[in-house]
């Protein structure tokens, strides 16, 4: 098994083409990487992904791993966004359980990698992400570099069910959990730090870009 992994997630069949394109874009961008010291991993939820999709994923990913779905109860916030499809995105916190890897680069299934980013595996930080297009004080959770840690997963899981998410999806709760400064939780304990990556690592199409 490789020491590092690129990871994405599939929770519904309509996103299968995105998962396949993402995998091929990673392979293409890393074709000159002599080390090739990473696996391609796709997390799936068995109750919402078909056998046909799983077979297609196994042709391009080194590992296809089933995880339990986690759903948001913040329906009002998702309605405001007009994005009920984001209710299951919090399932991605399972990446912190991949402790067989030293570092993981997580990318959403609608991500197209244009140049090699495998150097991000060497970051010393436990959590890194790029600022969001519309809210630069928040990070976008479509690309994250993390150090898997079961304790962080357990704390994140409990934090989510205790606090919910201000945007209804994973990005809201992750931004509440991680901090770019020395902020603390309500009990006085230190919030894990967010290392800010360049916006160029995760450019989200918008009216401005």
UniProtKB/TrEMBL annotation:
Q: What is its main location?
A: cytoplasm
The first-level EC class reads transferase
Catalytic reaction(s) noted: L-tyrosyl-[glycogenin] + UDP-alpha-D-glucose = alpha-D-glucosyl-L-tyrosyl-[glycogenin] + UDP + H(+); [1,4-alpha-D-glucosyl](n)-L-tyrosyl-[glycogenin] + UDP-alpha-D-glucose = [1,4-alpha-D-glucosyl](n+1)-L-tyrosyl-[glycogenin] + UDP + H(+)
Q: SUPFAM superfamilies from the xrefs?
A: Nucleotide-diphospho-sugar transferases
Q: Which GO terms describe its biological process?
A: glycogen biosynthetic process
Q: Which UniProt keywords apply?
A: Cytoplasm, Glycogen biosynthesis, Glycoprotein, Manganese, Metal-binding, Transferase
Where in or outside the cell it occurs: the entry states: Cytoplasm
| Listed GO CC annotations | cytoplasm
EC no. given is 2.4.1.186
Q: Does the keyword Metal-binding apply?
A: yes
Which top-rank group of organisms is this from? Eukaryota
**What role is this protein assigned?**
Self-glucosylating initiator of glycogen synthesis. It catalyzes the formation of a short alpha (1,4)-glucosyl chain covalently attached via a glucose 1-O-tyrosyl linkage to internal tyrosine residues and these chains act as primers for the elongation reaction catalyzed by glycogen synthase.
Cross-referenced PANTHER family, in alphabetical order? GLYCOGENIN SUBFAMILY MEMBER
Q: Which family would the database say this protein is a member of?
A: Belongs to the glycosyltransferase 8 family. Glycogenin subfamily.
This protein's name: glycogenin glucosyltransferase
